[in-house]
Write a structure and sequence with these properties.
Blueprint lengths: L46 E2 L5 E2 L12 H5 L2 H7 L2
Antiparallel strand pairs: 1-2
Length: 83
């Protein structure tokens, strides 16, 4: 895997930012998930809170190094939602 596909910022004050995440295999590259804009079609493990807010705190999908390619493959879809 090329180096640019994985970045772990272990000195971050929030690292790891998801409870239960493996700190030895946690990708910080997508700190802000680019799939968030896709709403319920993101493919991650999210919940909807009673007030309607999407809660991604239990989702590790963008933080798994093997998902880099799958996320990049959806950039066209992401850009289409942002227009």
């Amino acid at each position: 895997m090329p180096e640019y596909q994985y970045f772990s910022h272990k000195s971050c004050e929030c690292f790891p930012c998801h409870e239960g995440a493996d700190p030895e295999d946690f990708n910080c590259l997508f700190c802000y998930c680019p799939l968030y804009v896709l709403g319920t079609e993101c493919g991650g493990a999210f919940t909807i809170l009673p007030d309607g807010t999407k809660d991604c705190s239990g989702c590790l999908y963008p933080h798994r190094r093997e998902n880099y390619g799958a996320i990049c493959a959806r950039f066209g879809e992401i850009c289409g939602r942002m227009q």
